[in-house]
From TrEMBL:
Residues 184-216 are annotated as: Disordered. Residues 197-208 have a biased composition (Acidic residues). GO terms for biological process: regulation of proteolysis; regulation of Ras protein signal transduction. Pfam families: PBP (PF01161). It comes from Coniochaeta pulveracea. This is Phosphatidylethanolamine-binding protein. InterPro entries: PEBP, PEBP-like_sf, PEBP_euk.
Amino acid sequence: MDHKTLTDRLSKAGLVPGPAERLIPSDFNPTVQLEISFEGKPVQHGTSFRTSEVAVVPGVKFKPEAEADSRASYTLMLVGPDPAEPTNADKAFFRHWLIPGLEPLASGMVAETKFALTPYRGPELEKDSTPHSYLYLLYREPRNQDPRKEDVGGDEFEERRAWKPEDYIKKHELKLVGLNWMTCAPEGGKTDNDGNNPDDVDTTEEPVVEPTVLAS
């Protein structure tokens, strides 16, 4: 996806300008196509899901960067930039998933070489909640990176809230290379921000990504 198309979509989604601008530079141009899928349903830059559809770890695929070292490794994070309550902006950026040491293979399959610093926890929304956005961010790591659990924080609900991903990114000198995002609505809840039912959104714009289990 070219820079202009990505910028337009991020703007339409209310992410940049918006809560995600602290993580996504205005001149960002992806060098990796980050493919995420849940049970065969791909995440395609704003695809809508119900919470039940995203309860399990998604499939992840991406191919090696053309200009990167063949031994390059990557960190994937999933964050929720929307606060649980609109009036509680200081509680934004829930840490749903953080996994370092991902190594892409030529096929697009991804090898997991390190334990997740934050295990996957899918979106959880109250029935009367409006749809929320969720960002998948892929970063190239510097050589010989050794992130530690204490750099991130605990795994309990309150410990995941109000995370500051930009601090972690700066400390570990991560470079953003790819991204994707989705919206999620509660079971039986309101429709997404465009007025669509998540079950009815057309996801045929890009090829379907088959779910992939991260190899250990």
